[in-house]
Amino acid sequence: MDEVIEEIISIPGVYSCSIVSYDGIVIKSVSKTDVDEELVAALIAKIAKEIINKIEIKENVLTIIKGSRGFGLMVTKENFIVGVVTSSDVNIGDVRIKMKEGAKILEGIL
Q1: What ranges do the domains of the chain cover?
Q2: In whole angstroms, what is the distance from residue 76 CA to residue 82 CA?
Q3: CA 60, CA 55: separation in Å to the nearest integer?
């Protein structure tokens, strides 16, 4: 699990990477900034559940939220969500690939 998070957090422009449950509980989180990890986990779970309920697909949903100062990305799996917060100049394609690869690895662990 640590290797997956380290792979994602090492991408330039990535501020934080969290693995959370659908209840908003932090399973594992690493942040380069002073961010409330529990708040981020709760928001990731809330947003993911809303999206899942609307489209009625629980697994393998990739969501990208663009803000004025960066991106929030989420990948949903059956038992967990991977969430990443980035700067606006991050290589979003690299983040997407690493998140999808990492989530697939984590499926065998969680």
Answers
A1: 2-107
A2: 7
A3: 12
> Which amino acid, one-letter code, is at 26?
V
For strands 26-31 and 14-20, give the pairing: antiparallel
Tell the residue number behind the tokens 């942040």, with chain if given: 31
Whole-number Å distance between alpha carbons of 84 and 5: 10
Residue labelled with tokens 């934080």: 16
Express each pLDDT in 5-48 by its tens digit. Answer: 999 999 999 999 999 999 999 999 999 999 888 999 999 999 99
Q: What is the DSSP string of 18-69?
A: EEE-TTS-EEEEEESS---HHHHHHHHHHHHHHHHHHHT--SS-EEEEEETT
CATH number attached to the domain at 2-107: 3.30.450.30
